[in-house]
Amino acid sequence: MKKHSIFLCIVLTGIFSALLFNACGEKKKTQAELITGNWAHLKNKAHVLLITSPTGEWESIVRIPDDGLKIVKSKKNAKGTWHIEKGQMSFAVVESEIEDVWAKNSAISYNIVELTENKIRLKDESGLVTAWTRTDMGKTVESEGNPALSIPMAPVVVNINKNRANDKDRYLCLKMNIKLKELMPDEKPPPVHSKIHDTVITFFSSLLYDDVKDFNGIRVQSQKLAGMLNPHMEGMIKEIQIENVIVTAEMDKVEEFMTVNSHPVGTAAEKGKEGKNGKKETEGKEKPKH
Questions:
Q1: pLDDT tens sequence across 22-76
Q2: What's the 3-state SS for the chain?
Q3: Would you state the CATH architecture of domain 31-138?
Q4: Helix 196-205 vs helix 215-229: angle between axes, to the nearest 10 degrees?
């Protein structure tokens, strides 16, 4: 009985020590980590969006509501770098089309009055305090997969281009999502333009095998595609996210890819455009070109 009591004490001590170690070992976020993300501020009835990246870069966009309180998507923005040191946040403005908010080539510093997961309060040199609210309430697109900021695309299959006529046919199969920039409060994602699908097909069909033979090449091409699609999506595309991709010369692998990656009938991604005969044409389902 005495041995059992001693053993129980040792076990309980071990558990308590482990819990204490874990509690003490929890990493507290730095100010730089807390401030990384997407923030919104209301200034003179205009929504100012601030996107701070962990690489020390920032982008700001101003959106002005019209008389009907619908948000007008301004094409004006500003960019630069940011830095935090000793409770002070500094912005270097490299580019700006919003001079009244971010003066070009200026350096602006603020004292951090309050900084939490969802709120920032900054005081400028004149003593004016501005409050910023995290637009996604602490959730990032990358960690939570916010559906409002990601538009799934139907799978795409195309013949990639060839250098020589006698080169074998290869098929590029992709499953992608359009990731949008942060939306303002109560703002809806822009509608998917009818030219998006045709642009995607034309772009990937023009590529050569060397352009897409590895994932780094695919990533470079997806960045180019985002730039081509942005004019059709009101400049709201942040990036094209590749979920799945294969390059193959075998049709059975193409068919397997389509089976695995196609959405069930009736989902949003399956709702294609209606053809002249009234039947729906599903996006991404056309046969590869030969």
A1: 445 556 888 888 888 888 887 776 778 888 888 899 988 877 665 544 555 555 7
A2: CHHHHHHHHHHHHHHHHHHHHHHHHCCCCCHHHHHCEEEEEEECCEEEEEEECCCCEEEEEEEEECCCCCEECCCCEEEEEEEEECCEEEEEEEEECCCCCCCCCCEEEEEEEEECCCEEEEECCCCCEEEEEECCCCCCHHHHCCHHHEEECCCEEEECCCCCCCCCCCEEEEEEEEEECCCCCCCCCCCCCCCHHHHHHHHHHCCCHHHHCCHHHHHHHHHHHHHHHHHHHCCCEEEEEEEEEEEECCHHHHHHHHHHHCCCCCCHHHCCEECCCCCEECCCCCCCCC
A3: Beta Barrel (2.40)
A4: 140
Burial class (CB in 10 A: 0-12, 13-18, 19+), 259: exposed
Look up the pTM and report it. Answer: 0.46
Nearest to 282 by CA among 157, 178, 149: 157
What long-range pairs does 214-223 form, CB within 8 A, spacing at least 24?
Answer: 215/242, 215/245, 218/174, 218/242, 218/245, 222/176
* pLDDT at res. 77: 83
Determine the residue type at 263.
H
| Residue-wise pLDDT tens digits, 235-279 | 888 889 888 898 998 888 888 788 777 654 333 333 334 333 433
Q: For the chain, how far is it from start to end, CA to CA, in angstroms?
A: 82
Burial class from Cβ neighbours inside 10 Å (0-12, 13-18, 19+) for residue 75 reads exposed
